[in-house]
Every structure is written in structure tokens, then in C-alpha cells.
Amino acid sequence: MKPIFYLILMLVFLSSCEDTIDLNLKDPQIKYVIEGAITNEPGLVKVMLSQTKDFKENNQFNGVSGAQVKIENEGITTVLTESSKGVYQTDKINGRPGVTYRLTVNINNEVFTASSTMPVPVPLLDFTLKPSDYERTRVTPKVKYRDVASVSNYYWFQQYINDKIQSQYKVSSDEFTSGQEINEYLVFENNTKDESKDIVKGDRLTVEMHSIDASVYTYLFSLFNANGSADGAAPANPISNISGGALGFFSAHTVERKTIVIP
Amino acid sequence: MRKNGPVKILTVIALILFLMALIQSRAHAQDPFDKKLNITLENEPLKDALDKMTKASGVKFTYNEQVANSKIKITVHAINKSLKETLTAAFLDKPIQFSVLDKEVFIRLNAEAVKKAEAGPAANPNQNREKYTLSGTVKAKGSGETLIAASIKVAGTNQATMSNEYGFYSLTLGKGDYVIEIRGVGFKTYKIPVQLNQNVKLDATLEEEDNQLETVTVKATSNSQNIKSTQMGMERFSIRETKEVPVLLGEADIIKTLQLLPGVKTAGEGNGGMFVRGGSSDQNIILLDEAPVYNASHLLGFFSTFNSDAIKNVTLYKSGMPAQYGGGLSSVLDVKMNDGNNQKLGVSGGVGVIAARLNIEGPIQKNKSSFLISARRTYADMFLKLSSDTSIRNTQLYFYDVNVKANYILGEKDRLFVSGYFGKDVLASQNLSGINWGNATSTLRWNHVFNSKLFSNTSLIFSNYNYRVNANDDESSLTLFSQIRDWSFKENMQWYLNEKNTLTFGLSSTYHSIKPGEVEASGDSGFLSQEFQNRFSLENAVYASNTWKASEALNITYGIRLSAFSIFGKGDFYDLDQDGNVTGTTHYKSGEVVKTYINPEPRVALALQLNELSSIKTSYVRNVQNLHLISNANSASPTDRWVASTNIIKPELSDQVSIGYYRNISDNAYEFSAETYYKSLQNQIDYRNGADIFTSKPIETQLLFGKGRAYGLELLIKKKSGRFTGWLGYTLSKTERKIDGINNNEWYNARQDKTHDITFVGMYKLSQNWTVSANWVYSTGNAITYPRGKYTMLGQSYFYFSDRNADRMPAYHRLDLGATRLLKQTKRFSSELNFSLYNAYGRKNPFRITFRDNESDPNRTEAVRTTLFQFIPSISYNFKF
Predict the structure, then answer these.
(1) Which of residues 480-509 of B touch A (CB under 8 A)?
(2) Whether A19 and B844 lie within 8 Å, measured CB to CB
(3) Spatial separation of the C-alpha atoms in residues B783 and B798, rounded to whole Å
(4) What stretch(es) of chain A map to CATH 2.60.40?
(5) DSSP letters of B652-671?
(6) Which of A73, B388, B411, B486 has the smallest number of Cβ neighbours within 10 A?
(7) Fold for the domain defined by A124-211+257-261
(8) Buried b (16+ CB within 10 A) or exposed e, B45-65
(9) Do A226 and B799 touch (CB under 8 A)?
(10) Model confidence, pTM
(11) Residue from the list A15, A167, A229 with its beta carbon closest to the beta carbon of B868
């Protein structure tokens, strides 16, 4: 319901205005950040290790070299090699549903661990767009899938426009929809003032549907509001599934993909 | 530092203005005692002598029949002497007293001296005197409305009392002759001689102060009750006192006005939520004719649900709540609706920038019964229809509220009131999604006067709050409905036991039923319809409290409230582990008691009068709260969830001690007060990080518990009479929370913690037709959390946050200006135009600060301030006939 509120708030505050301000922010606290994923698609498994940086610095990835990164599954340990600064990878793991993967990152004797179990994939049945759901700045296609009743399922939809990843994503759980066929909206939006980013004829909208485990769902759900929500709730760090004090998450998930082209 | 410059200058300007106003108004009010006169009187009867002195000095005298018929004769010679000297000389050895009453001089016979003179020196008036009781009801002459907190005083003495919320008073005195003075804010003082040789019933009708006369000023009417009463931490307004205060969009709003008082803070720009002495907004008990109002705001908090046309009087208790109130940790806001004019039919109303109002009241049977209907609706949505954008055109956005009331005088001793309120907000984009919410309350009350000393009020109360959220599209629809509903019975007795003791006692019983959510789904969304378990509870309380005049100087109020909160089935109740996971479930059958929390709530208050004009007071109060609003938002959201205490959610407790110094200056024209308080809070509730608000899991799994503390100093100087009225307030305070699981279990600033807070409110009567007003507020910025670093995740920038609320928003300050032009005033019709300018110097106060990637340069991050209101002008037209 949040978007509705936001919309209405904006309507009410016709006189509201936004501007950038300079704030005296306190010195940054340096934390390690881990982003790691294993999918059921063939290819590389990547784990990225970085550090937080000052607000005033640029947004370049602040990779950290020299870590020992290992993934263990079913008694086999695979060591990942650093391909570029802070990016560790391997082609020796082919993710399979039902398998639990354990990540260990050791940097300067600080050890971070995480584990994630790849769920059984739930098929993405359809990805469709009605003409009435199209506006240049906001396109809301629907995904269709059928939940599996016997287990708790969590879903993560990542969105791309012309293969460029969008900041918007959606997570769902089957708490209220167990065993049902589900049709739900995704929002592809240009919320900048830059008209060149509007969604026009010929643009390709892609959805990647992932079946994720509960701890990854919690992370992504809390990441969603991490920068403070529109109505002013206190911002808080997302709840990570990594122990040892690093930020970020490690996920073993399935991937399905569908694309539509704006007619 | 650069940013503080204008603030300092403005502070200084505000202070200077205030001081100037003080000086000016003192100069204006020339003391009639200082008038010089030349007069010679030889054995003139008292009345003739006074008439001649009026001629000679221009000063009028006020007196009763007793004085007019007095046989006393006066002799005096005065040459260019002041009136005071003249009178002192003339009344030497005579049983006559005199005192200044505004621009006139009040003359009265000294009852004791008269008696002495009559009975001879042997009679001792203080011995073996029988006691009698004077009681009755105080009303307004024009409307027949009863007056709350009117003061009833024996002229020339310290003996006084106040009318209760139904206008009833009772005063026990020794046998004798007295002159009784009855005063109410905005009314002429009513004086009457009373011969008390039996119990006397005296119903007083006070005449409204007439603006047409030269006296365009409000008189000081406090009569120093603020000094004597044990009540501290209290603010009381009659609605007419708040009407001149400029507010956002010109919609007179009592909650906005209360936010201009020390110790009462806002959550944010334009927000209706109130934070009293460090409490959160749900810790205020808001009562409308005794019925609790669970969501006191319209339009997401920008307006309060109280339509000022229908309101008579509001009282806010910040500490030392009387024992009949319970259920909220921070404050009690007791709002009383008008009863309805029982003299003549009246219609009033107004049109403002966003809303139109209409109020109709009149007698059903003259002097006996009356009704009132008051309605208000916003019409901003009409303009949305003009928009070219279809999504805006199809948006519904309005609120309305209706107040109705009727009362009937059954006889000498009985009076019946029925009152109701209904309000609703609708926000929706047509056929798609939306939300509506509203309160409905109703109260049936019966006043019964058992005898001149015992007053009883019996109430039957209903209150309901619900909201409904819709999300529809072509293929599916989803509705969420949630409700909280109360039925209560209250019995309150006031027993004016004797000269020294006034006892209040009673009981209350409330049945709460809470429906947390009912989801109806249809279509292809896959959403399953379901209903969350309803919760049932019974809240009972008994209380007794006594106000004891221990001596002339010392008043003590002591009492206790014993509350019992019982939680009933049917439903499942849970056991949780440390991390909020369910470890066990117990099912309770319908009507089965799950748990009962019994809490004694002692209350003590003490007032020591240092002299006629000053006193110190201290109080201790414990409050218990069993209904909790679970909210993680800064601004009020209608979907914030009310939950009752459960086996896991413990009753919230607060203990508050406060000490204050009170002083009236310049014949009660100014009231100064300084109060300090310390409050500790237990069993405070907050959401877990990453809590899922919309979940079928037990709500307890999403919550964390902890404690809080708040302390501060509040200074307030008020000017209540003269052309210039207003106040200047300053608060120095600290508010902290310590919740297990937040901020590494360390103390952190509550969001509403504002170290410094200054408010200035001034109203100046320029002329017969023009009144101008101004507010200026300044406060330290809200405590918020700024990032302590950033990182890249999923290709986006995210921010790292460390200590909760360790940073500050920029300071908040704002000037509002208002002006009221009286267009027409006759006996039958009056109308006025009201202009206001909100945020007159356009300060960009942040509503919110967010952090994000720069749009044009995604390689940089920026802090973005959202400002809501700058230079908001408004105009409204009000009429009355």
C-alpha cells in the first residue's frame, strides 16, 4: 500500500519541493560488504567483497583484494579466485536445487560465514502487458506463476530495461497465497525528470524470477526499506544472513527469465 | 554557524516585541486609582457620594443593592488627590471595602464588619458558626451553555471554587452575608450578594463581554486559580481563545494550538500528532465528550478531527492527571463539545481555503433543552476534477465530520446529554485503489445533583475507529478492513464534603474489541481471503481522590486509581523465544480469561501558596496504558495498528514527578510558570528492524520492548488581558529510549527529542475591527539517523547506518501571521474575514531528508531535503446569526 500513500502524499503536497543540501556527516565507519550468488544456470559463481566508503566519495565499487573465499557444498570445498579487485569467482560450481551452500570469507583473519539453500524452482508461467497498463513513465506488466502449497516459498523479481538492471525489484512470500495461481504487477518506472529514460516503443522489459530461501527474502525485504521509507520510519541496516559482522547477503537461487517488447 | 544567524536575530526580535507589548499594555491600562480629583462631601449618603465622585473623577463604581441602600454617610475633603487616597480617607472607620475592577472601582460592604457593627463588639464571628452550602450551575446568558472552570469567589476573601465540566459548583461557608463574584473567560464578572443562613442554590448566568463597547479587551479572569489549585501541567482553553491563532490553511485547530505550548511537540511539518513530554503520539488519551478518539487526525495528520465550531473547551493534562482519567501515559486531552444554544436558534459557519463549515444550534424547549449540529467538509477535491491529468481527475480526496448533540433538563436535579461524532476520510484513485478511515463516537450522559454537595455523572460511551484499504484492478480486488471498538460505562461522583475536602470517586468499565484485519480477495491475484484473530479485553478501574485544604496556604490532592485489564479468548496466544520465533501456542475458548493485569496508579499533588501571587507545586503520577499503537512511521498513518496488551505485550507504565513555580504578575494580567519534570517509562514498544507490518504471524513476533525516560524544564509567560494577549514559552528537554535489540541496547534519542523549543504567540487588537496575530516557533531539529558510509549492492548505492537517531535535522523555525477583520457586527448578525500566512519568511524546514544517487551523475550521492510548506496564504470567511 505504500506506493498509494506516496502518490497521495505527493498530491496533497502540491507545494512541496525538493532540493539538495549539504550536511555535516560524521566520519564513515568501515565495514566489509559481501554480495554473493549461486544460481542453477551454468556459468560463473561470483562473490564480491568490498568496503563501505564515505558519503562524499564517488559510487565506484570499493573492492577488497586478498581475501580467501571458499564455498562448501555436500562435503566439497571450492576456493574462489580473484578475477578483479574484490571480485572472486569460480566456474566449478553448478548450482542445484535442494543443495545447501556455505560461504566462508577470510580477510586479514576476520571470518564471515553464510549459508543458503537453493529452493526448488517454481515455474514462471507468463509475463504480459495490457495496453492500459502502459504509460511512458510507468509500465506495469504482470507476472503469472503457480505457488507450490506444500512448502513456504519466497520469490524475488529482478527487473531490467534493455538489459540494464533497475533499482526497483520485488519480493513476495506465499504467506497469503499458498498453492494459488498468482498474478501480480511489477512496476517499471522512470522516476527521474530525464525524459530520455522514458519507456518507449521497442524497449525490452525483462523479468528474472528467482526462488529464494527465507533468510534471503528477509534480507531483500529489509533492504527495500533500508534507506528510510517514504513516511519517515527510521532507516536501519538490512538483516543480513552473513554472520561475523559484514553487510550484504549470500544467496543460492534459481533463475527464470521472460522478456516483453513494448509494442 | 552561518545558518544560526537569522535564528538568533529573530529570537531577539521576538523577545523585544514581547517586552514592548508588555510595557505598552501596562501603559494603556491606566489605573483608575491614580485619577486625580477635587471634591468636598459632608455627610452624604453612600450612593450619592459615589455618584458625585464619578462626576468628579470620571471613574465608575460597581456595587450591589446592599451598598446602594446603605445608610452609611460619607465626609471627605480632597484637593487634587488621587482617587485611592480620597477613598481611603472617606471610608476610614467605615465597614466598606474597595478594589479596582478593570477600569472601574468595586465597592462592597465588609460583611464581617457589618455584622460586628450590628451585633456589637461581643459577637465573635468565627465561633460556633453554622456552615451552609452555596451551590448551582454557571451558564452563559446568550446561549445557555454551561461554563467550565468558571471561578466562584467570595469577594474580599480567599475562599473560592471552580465550576466543574458541567458548570456545577458547590462552596461551603460559615453562616453570613457575602458578595459572590463569578467569572468566566470572555464573560462579564457577575456579582451578587448572598445571605447564607441556609443552603442556597444560586444559578448564575454570565453575560458575554460585548465587543461593541469600548472594552475591546479580554479581561484577566484567572482569579489566581492557577496559583491555588494543586493541578499542575495543565492547559485549558476555551475555543474562543484559540480562534485568532494563525494556522495552516486557516482551519482553526485546537491540536495545532496546543502544539504551541511548552512540553507539547509536533512530529513534523503540518503533522497533527502530539508528543507530550517525551511520550509518543499514542500515549495521549484524547476524549471527545468522554469518548476516546483513536485517530484524531484527518488527511494523514494535517488536520485534527476537532471542528472548532462544535467545541466548547479543551483541557490538556501533561502531568498530575486527575484520578478519573486513565489509560494513557503522556497526557489526557479532554475535549468538550458545546451543548447547543437553549435560548435562540443560531446559525454559524464559514468558508476557508480547503473546507466549509456549518453549525446550527437552538432550543428544543427554551431554557430546557437544546440541540447542536455541526458539520465540515473539505472541497479541495472539486479542484482535482479540473485537472487535465486523468489520474488526478479520478482521485478522491476529502474528509468530513459531523458533530451532533442534544441535552435536556429533566428537572432541578437532572440533566441528560446525548452527543455524537462521525468523521471520515477518503483517499482513493478511482476504481483502482484507496483507503478510507473514520471515527464514530457517541455518549449518553446523565447528570444528577443528589444534594448541594454531591454531584454525579453517569456515562454510557461508544467509540469506533476503522479503516478499509482497497486495491483493485481489472482482474482482481483486495480489501483489508480493520477496526477497534469500545463500549464503556462510567460513573463519577464529586462530593464537596466540607470547607476543607472535596472528594472525587467513581468507576469505569470498558469492553474493547479489536479486529486487526479481515482480508477479502477475489480475482486472479492468488490472494486468499482470511481473517486475523480478533482480540477482546475488559478494562476496569475504580478510583478515589481527595483535595484537602490543609491550611490557607497548603492544598493537597491525593488519590489512587486501580486499573484491571483482562484479556479474553477466544483466540490463540503465544510463547516466543528471544528472536521472536513462536515456541508454543495456547488456545483459549470464548470468554476464557487469558490474563489480568492489575495496576495501582497512585497520584499525589501538593500546592503551597507562598503569597497571594505565587505558589510552588509538586506532583507524582503513575499512568498505565493497555492499548498500544504500533507505528513505525513518523507521520500518522491511518493504518497504524492498535493492539491491546497480551501475555507478551505488557502494560506500558509511566512514573512522573514534577515541580513547578507559579507567579501571577500585575493583578493577574500575566501568568508565569516554570515546571520541571522527570518521567520514566516501562514496557515501551517498537518494531524490530525489518519488521513485516502486514503479516499473519503474531504481531508480537515483529516487536521489541524496552524503556524510556524524559526530563525537562518548561517556562511559560502568558498575558491574558489587555489589547495584547499571548504567550512566550521555552522548553529544554531530553527524551530517550532504550529498546532491547535496537542501537546495541544503548540509550538513544527518541525521534521527537528536541533540545530547545521556543514558541511565541501574540494577538493584538488593533481596533474595533482588526485583530492581528503572529506565531513564531523555533526548535532543535528532530533526531534522525544519517548514513555513516555507503556501499554498492545489486548495482545500486545503499547506505550504512550506525547509531540510531544520533544526528539532527536542521533547526526548525517558522513565522505565521494572521489578521481578522470584523466585517459586521450587530445583535443579529456578525461576520468576519480571516487572513493568514503560514511560514511567512519561507523557511525551508525539512519534512524529510533522503539520500540517493544523483540523477544526472549516478557516480555521486546526495542528500535531498523535502520541504512542504512555504508561504501558504489563506483566507476564510466566517459568519454567525
Answers:
(1) none
(2) yes
(3) 21
(4) 124-211+257-261
(5) EEEEEEEEEEEEEETTTTEE
(6) B388
(7) Immunoglobulin-like (2.60.40)
(8) ebbebbebbeebbebebebbe
(9) yes
(10) 0.81
(11) A15
